[in-house]
Write a structure and sequence with these properties.
The complex is a heterodimer of chains A (about 450) and B (about 575). Chain A has about 450 residues and is of the alpha/beta class. Chain A is built from 21 helices and eleven strands. Chain A has a five-stranded parallel sheet, sandwiched between helices. A three-stranded antiparallel sheet of chain B has the order 1-2-3. A three-stranded mixed sheet of chain B has the order 9-6-15. Classes of the chains: A alpha/beta (about 450), B alpha+beta (about 575).
Chain lengths: ~450, ~575
Amino acid sequence: MSRRTFLKFCSAMAGVLALPAAFGPRIATALQAAPPMRLVWLHGQACGGDTAAFLRSPSPTASELFVRLLSVDYQEMLMASSGANATRAMAASGGNGPDYLAVIEGSVPRGANGMYCLVGGRPFADVVRDVSAGAVATIAVGSCAVDGGAPRARNGVTGAVGVEDLHPASPLVNLPGCPVNVHNLVATIVHYLTFKELPPMGAAHRPLFAYGGLVHNQCERRAHFEFGEFATEWGDAGAQQGWCLYKLGCKGPEVFANCPTQRYAEGTSWAVESGHGCIGCTMPAFWNTMLPAYRRLPSPLPFASTITVDQVGGALVGGVAGLAGVHAVASYGRARLSRQGKTMSVETEPADEAPAPLPDDEEAPSPAGDPPGATEATAATAQVMTDAVPEPILPLEEVPLPEPESEAAPGVAALEALVQPEPERQVEAGDSIDEERADQ
Amino acid sequence: MSRLVIDPVTRVSGHLRIEAEVAGGQVIDAWSSGTMFRGIEALLVGHDPRDAWLLAERICGSCSGAHGLASARAVENALSITIPPNARLLRNMLAGIGWIADLITGFYQRAAFDWADVAGAARADPWAASRLAGSTNPTSGDTADALARVERELGGMPTGLFWSDAWDHPAHQLTPEADLILFAHYLRALDLQRTLARAITTLGGKDPHPQTFLVGGMALTPPWGGPTPMANRGHPDLPERTTPAALSSEGLAAFQALLVQVSAFVGDVLVPDAVAIVRAYPQWVEVGRGTAGLLAYGEFPQDDSPAPSFLLPRGRLMDGSLDQGYHVDEQDVRESVAHAWYEDESAGPRPASQGQTLPRYEGPAAPVASLEGWPRYSYVKAPRYAGLVPMETGAAARMMVGYVAGSSKVHQAVDPILAAAGVELPDLQSSVGRILARAAEASVLAPLLGSWLDELRTNLATGDLAVADITSWHPDTWPAEASGFALGETSRGALGHWVTIRDRRVAGYQVVDGSTWNLSPRDDDGRRGPLESALIGTPVADLDRPLELLRTIHAFDPCGGCAAHAFGIRARRVTP
């Protein structure tokens, strides 16, 4: 890397981290002075997608990362050595060696005494505990490592959990996404190299620079949403004009991530730009809460334009998952979930101020109104994509929020309760099908 | 006689453990064990079939998107949906670029360290290396840079990712200069990853796990009638797009420019390196032969009929004979779990379309020192053709099946490469031969992507803008019960998805991946899987450093994640 490219990368990094441009030189100085940061990267129940993303890091490139900025001491998909000699080398360097970052990819199975994932003959959970205990920080990379991801989704049989549920002994950073956006991973590492501390994080250990804003608010198609310009069928005039994909099931209005601004592969594209809606892969238990991918969210968020992750606050983990689960998103912009002491309580605005559910485009047009030209298509699509039968908003007070297990990890119990497959989920899914049918 | 264990086998996706009995300096028996189970098939049950591809795609992040495509095709097959020609071209291009990426990564990032010694590279004379590189590759300038990196930044001593106990192993035969060239190309292949990522993201929206498939076609849309300014209805200007839409002429030109770089790498670097490895290790053509059956489901449909012709042909080769190819019937794909960690009350292998997956670990307690004596030893099932025959799948199988089937594209690519390497067609099924087969396949595919791109451009220019058929998008148009399947290929081998849809939901799902075939354990009758067979006869010079086994293992470029796709319990049994 030439010095010019390097400085360019450093100022770009400052941009990713939402730091003033003046931090570029400071990042450069820190990176040049520092010896390569040691990295130990573990794979559990993983597909390897986060490693593939890491391998294709654009800036710095993987070759710069591997040779110069990092000393990747353990990475099963990439390292030269194999077998017991490889794990011995990791163990030897883990004890009194220099500081290292632990990166965990993939979920951790707890079923069958951990025997659903064996590394070097040991249950993966044991390996994670050992490695994260000695690390300066543990980075859970990708949605599987953050909260159990796909193996933990409904009908999962392996008892998979995320790293947080193992209560790692070192500070935790969660970088959800399926896969993680490699810009966010590299920026987190660079932040640590520069400032010797982790980037500011929200309640769910998510760096705010990456997961602090709604996808919807940063979306290049947002203006179309405001003006009621929607694609209503795949390939229709609206879709070809690049109009909003909300009615085709885009989950952007309830997803916190920086995909619209960072995009993927050096800003080449992201899902919504390419024409497919957001599937919400950065959200807790997204396989349970964000599918069906093509069903329209129940109604627009009236106050979405001002909502930030801070306002949702501690409820990000439990609240959004739970609310999405009961399709009560219409009111979550107004909901204030706050943790008080050991308990989680839910307060809502007075009922008369709460926005009424918008059952159907026909009966209650969205605040922005539908594009006049798209009305016919909208009617047809509404049958397919929307919850045609008005769904009463479940009063938030009735959302069961259990007592947290311990002071140490107040959010974990709530997460567990909310992402565990609920018995009524299956029924609810079946019901919604019936609703679709009944409407026709 | 002694037993050796490699766990973890690194530079593979997923988790793979190999145990082997060694006597007289070579392997006399071997066991392949997948040690990770996720249970993804069960997760699909109950979902909207239009969502199935999103979950199925997460089986593998390396052969990115391949499972998503297979799943969309299986659902389309069940619902009798015919996709438009543009969707076929786009899918071929997206699958093709991901495939080439995997072939390149599979050689440099996963296999190269078995054949090249990075410690040896540090001793190379850069000028001699440069001259040597110039004689085989037109791209020679990067060896001095690579050496500088080895010396200055690794302090002459490979550390981190590049540390290995296998350096200075007696099985390393390359000259230090050749080691250095290969290491330099390892670094170049890393740099090429950016280009590959941009190409995949252009068409897929992100990488890995592209997000532009739809049941019925693709979600990408051409700009409506060209660059007509949007009717400004009073709203503020939209943010400036920094990148063009994929299907605009600028977007397609950008994809083409990336493709040119990738093709150049395949022709100038990958193929010469693969040939050089075969020439430097001629005795390894005799190692790692494996099973007598070869299977290819075929890939890259050339038309939109229910039974299209494939660019890489579908077929089987049996009993090691190259005289005749055989047809493939999906009903004959059967899986045995006799030696895998699953319960099954039925006797004998099951047809894949009726498969079930009930995990039950039956092995030693942790930490597992050895699986010796345990009849069940893997989370990978054992697929067998017609319930009997273990089959190798992957690039070697595809090139040999394609050659026997008379594909002119395969002949044109394979013949000169075989001649340059000084080997015969059957030699592709060996530890070095499989590397050669992958390089040959990359050189088949790279020009094809360009021809699909041209075809797509022509269609768009003549007003054929359809990229999806949504006449069956509405669940109301579906039959109450339907089942379908898709047989296709990924870079690692033959891939089959089977789906049953009932009451608008996925009622059953099974996957048999290429790596499931290759990594399979023994079956009901005790027949070894292809990798297990291939390992027999592999020489072992140093029991503590079994480098030679890794060569044969990586030649398959196995994926433990795909193999133990291990989809879980079938929540609702499919009635036949």
